[in-house]
Design the sequence.
């Protein structure tokens, strides 16, 4: 595997992953694997990656007011439902959405693997390996764009 994607691939069980940076190193790696003392493949323990330190720069507890919106987020989170926040600029939609992960349960391995697949196809994983934090993306609709 390319060195950049080695940790990501090593998350998959029962697959031996060897990292290389160029074609010459790939040929040398093949020769080393066929030798009497093959190198050890890269191994990643998913349970170590998914250790949650629950360190967020923001927290849902910081929100003052917004009782109806907070309740809607809590109900949607508890039920595993989607939610759409609509309102005028400055009403707190993004503030609430950024704090939503602090009340969500930790990612399980299967969900983290699914997120990693999506990020990998988009070229967003880098050397991190498994994506362990829920993504946050702010979408601005054409009617909400500043003039």
Sequence:
């Amino acid at each position: 595997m390319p060195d950049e994607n080695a940790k990501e691939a090593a998350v998959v069980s029962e697959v031996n992953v060897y990292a290389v940076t160029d074609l010459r190193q790939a040929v040398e790696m093949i020769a080393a694997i066929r030798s009497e003392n093959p190198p050890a493949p890269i191994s990643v323990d998913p349970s170590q990656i998914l250790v949650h330190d629950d360190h967020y720069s923001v927290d849902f507890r910081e929100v003052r007011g917004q009782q109806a919106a907070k309740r809607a987020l809590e109900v949607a989170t508890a039920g595993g439902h989607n939610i759409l926040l609509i309102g005028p600029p400055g009403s707190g939609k993004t503030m609430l959405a950024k704090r939503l992960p602090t009340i969500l349960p930790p990612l399980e391995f299967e969900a983290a693997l699914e997120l990693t697949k999506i990020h990998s196809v988009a070229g967003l994983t880098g050397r991190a390996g498994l994506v362990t934090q829920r993504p946050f993306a702010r979408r601005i609709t054409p009617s909400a764009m500043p003039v």
